[in-house]
Specification:
The protein is an all-alpha fold and 286 residues long. The protein is built from 10 helices and no strands. The protein is globular, with a radius of gyration of 18 Å.
Length: 286
């Protein structure tokens, strides 16, 4: 298993990301909204892979199965919207490739659980993440609008939360390959870097600061559980709930940054409308 390409994608995300927070129910979207929806697919890729691992390991089976199916439905809805709004042949071709990769990944994620199958899911998620990231960068070429770096940084945490959960659940399930631990550790460091940047920003509003503080507390709680993992003690149910709430909290922070930016510049689509990340997982609350 070679995750070098996926690691390159994560490094790109650390330099700047966008977030999807609107439901993909409209038939016509702006270029900026298209970028946001394509970027949200990256988190969905990791969420599907994570949910497959949770189902395979029997962790909160019914809830994990429901999240898997919801994320698949959401991905397909977003993909359909993007296909219907492609501005040129180049992006249409990238979407065609993504459609092919998506069908392979979806089929793997829906197969009956096995360790060999779980390895395939991780490999397919790597490929789809790579192509979806390329789509985002292609779409950015055709728009001059940009979302603030702090929105990018906070939205990065959403995908990384799901990635942490995927590797943790995979190891618990029995995939104890050295590269699983290596990639988990790499993702943990990437998450820590992004969070520290958010914490160090001096111009956060009180509401944003409060939410970052809550995210930091959730992260500290997750790290305590991960330390027990290093000593051979697994807390899969705790980690599953914690990374889910971290993902949703990160999206809320990105929403707040984007809403503030919209007041100063252009209207930012329908940023106030909650998407999947705001509605799935009954454990999240203010």
């Amino acid at each position: 298993m070679n995750f070098v390409r996926c690691r390159q994608v994560v490094l790109f995300l650390l330099a700047g990301m966008f977030i999807q927070t609107t439901a993909a129910s409209t038939t016509s979207i702006t270029e900026l909204e298209a970028i946001s929806q394509a970027a949200w697919q990256r988190t969905l890729v990791m969420r599907i892979a994570k949910s497959h691992m949770l189902v395979a390991a029997g962790i909160d089976y019914q809830k994990s199965k429901s999240q898997l199916m919801d994320a698949i439905e959401e991905y397909e809805a977003v993909l359909k919207t993007l296909q219907g709004n492609s501005p040129n042949h180049d992006i249409s071709e990238r979407l065609r490739v993504i459609k092919v990769e998506w069908e392979q990944f979806k089929a793997a994620s829906l197969k009956a659980s096995s360790q060999d199958g779980a390895l395939v899911v991780m490999e397919e998620s790597d490929d789809l993440l790579y192509h979806t990231d390329a789509l985002v960068r292609s779409w950015k070429v055709y728009t001059e609008e940009k979302i603030g770096h702090l929105v990018d940084t906070s939205s990065q945490q959403s995908m990384l939360s799901e990635r942490i959960g995927m590797f943790y659940a995979a190891h618990f399930y029995g995939l104890k390959n050295e590269w699983v631990i290596s990639e988990l550790n790499f993702t943990l460091k990437a998450y820590e870097k992004g969070l520290q940047e958010l914490l160090s920003h001096a111009d956060n509003t009180k509401e944003i600061g409060d939410n970052i503080a809550r995210l930091s507390n959730q992260w500290e709680y997750a790290k305590m559980s991960l330390k027990k993992f290093n000593s051979g003690q697994y807390l899969p149910h705790v980690i599953a709930v914690t990374v889910d709430t971290m993902m949703q909290r990160s999206n809320k922070i990105a929403n707040l940054y984007a809403a503030n930016k919209a007041e100063d510049t252009l209207q930012y689509g329908q940023i106030q409308v909650p998407g999947l990340a705001s509605t799935v997982g009954g454990d999240f609350s203010d």
